[in-house]
Amino acid sequence: MGWLTLISTLSGGVLGVGSTLVVESVRNRRDQRLRHAELRRTAYVRYLTALTETETALQTLALSRSTPIASSDVVAAFRSTGVIAARYELFLVAPAVVYDAAREAYDLLRAMRVAIATTTVVVGDESAEWQALHTPYDISLRKLRDAMRNSLGPAFD
Questions:
Q1: Would the pLDDT of 156 be above 70?
Q2: pLDDT grade, residue 44 (50/70/90)?
């Protein structure tokens, strides 16, 4: 009879410890997923902010002077916002679909930079040249935001 009690006690202990370990493992994985999602969300916000600030810097420069503008001034405006560092950060945490959309937006923003430095572009809603540069960028930015939202899932809606 003593052995049955001992075996029952040991079995209960093993089951108790085992179930506790399983619950902790599940909780740790969930917490890790939430931390990673928060890390991605933060990188997404930084990148979107940097893109917006870069676009604003380029527009402000193009509105303040006649184009084409010296390449060094345009590059300085482009780099002043930290968009390149934000892009590298995004590359480390974003899934491929988000990074591909981010790269497209970045490339179109660079095309704006090149146009301002090499051609005559009048910035404004009435300018066909500007709309030809800005509309594709704006569309790519919307696609990027959608990809980011989708990657974060319903917890961030």
A1: no
A2: very high
